[in-house]
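FORM 12-B: Structure-to-Sequence Request
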């Protein structure tokens, strides 16, 4: 019984982790062709008009210069859909 219960708990933890991972992926927006002057705060401010931004990150090279793309994570998936509809 103990082994079976342990297996059930491990399975439940994996399922919960998968759920959160999928939710995070769905609410994450990839933004490309960014001007090199854009930083994390400007990115958050720009996309904050479309919903609650939980994080905004401009990807940078090892020397600190922008790679020209970044990610914006919203609190809910519907906000990502609204951004895509508005900007496309």
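FORM 12-B RESPONSE
SEQUENCE OUT:
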């Amino acid at each position: 019984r103990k082994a079976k219960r342990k297996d059930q708990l491990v399975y439940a933890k994996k399922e919960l982790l998968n759920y959160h991972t999928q939710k995070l992926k769905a609410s994450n927006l990839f933004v490309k062709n960014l001007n090199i002057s854009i930083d994390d705060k400007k990115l958050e401010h720009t996309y904050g008009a479309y919903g609650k931004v939980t994080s905004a990150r401009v990807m940078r090279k090892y020397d600190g210069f922008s790679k020209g793309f970044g990610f914006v994570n919203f609190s809910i998936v519907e906000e990502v859909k609204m951004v895509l509809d508005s900007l496309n």
